[in-house]
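Quick one: structure for this chain?
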Amino acid sequence: MKDQHVRSARVVRKTNETEVEVSLVLEGQGRHELATGLGFLDHMLAQLAAHGLFDLAVRAQGDLDVDEHHTVEDVAITLGQAFDQALGGRQGIVRMAHAYVPLDEALARAVVDLSGRPYSAIQADFTGPRLGAVDTDLIIHFLETLAQHGRMSLHGCVLYGRNDHHKAEALFKALARALDAACRLDARRAGTPSTKGVL
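Got it. Here's what it folds into:
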């Protein structure tokens, strides 16, 4: 809708371990500026922006001399908070959506409900311990944390695949497509997308 306002957010998180700044525009064009210090995390965030058509800027400085855990986790927290902030009262949104995305031999599915109630169920089996400088277990932790702080229900599943990079990337692309669809404003819906009247 051409006359809709642009929903956006800027969130800053500072701890003794990390400093993270996220800017997000839901009605974007997929533009992204990413600098987390972790190349693979930047690559996954780029998929989220490009395939969700979100404009996304993420800057993070973390204690990578310890390991990558705090940086990955705090980026997920801050990004989730940015989605929550940008969605506001969530009036008129589609709310629920899903997407399947293949990447060569891998196939992933993401189903989201922007219900205001955080929940996650992530199924992804990785054969190797790392993707670049990121522990593969942190891929699942990132998605769980994003759902918690974005106040969304997220069910993500890698249905099959051989290559760990393909599996993770397909999952992030599926999430991007599902979030794009769920965040959209439905011209037929004026109020809260719930029979309860509130989210």
